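step 3/5: co-fold with glycinamide ribonucleotide
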Amino acid sequence: MLRRARIAVLVSGGGTNLEALLGAQATGGIPHGEIVLVCASNETAFALERARRRGIPAFGIPRRALGQEKFEAALTEKLADYRVDLIVLAGFLSILSEDFVRRWPDRIVNIHPSLIPAFCGKGYYGLKVHEEALRRGVKVTGATVHLVNEIPDGGRILLQKAVEVLPGDTPEVLQRRVMEQAEWVLLPRAVEQLSAQIASEKEDHL
Ligand code: GAR
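step 4/5: write tokens
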């Protein structure tokens, strides 16, 4: 029997990347993985609704109210409850502590809406990334899927895709193009690649 990677998706807002993953899962695009849990850093994230509609357990863990330490403790408990192998940050806009990251080597993957190393790091998230890209006048932007690890491996890049910036773009228009042409394509692909790797390691341990 195929052992599939058990995936948790962490979100903060609308969840269109989560939707892309759920869509890929429904159409057989992630044969080596299974989304078993969705957690949001707040209780009002629409992404939670998207998961619940598909019958996937979804929890809001209010990071602001709890503080980072209690938030991560609650998250760690959920990840253990659902026996998660792989964490996908899909529009998760909080920073995870070094301590947390250290406990998941090569098992946390993130999508960022630029061609890293451009427009990344502190303060660069969501629409702000596209505002800055337009302010600098870049002609090409895109998206990057990378692992989240401790420094020095910090953010080993797995996949990137370039997207054209067009005259008259607003941050919202550019964000949508980057999502459609890059993010929603790359993320399911990277998640399947990592899941296949994890699934084969699980087979080895049978
Ligand atoms: C996406 O563009 C994602 O790449 C970005 O936030 C948006 C969330 O949209 N993530 C970051 O900026 C991480 N630094 P979504 O909730 O609709 O998937």
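step 5/5: annotate
The mean pLDDT is 95.
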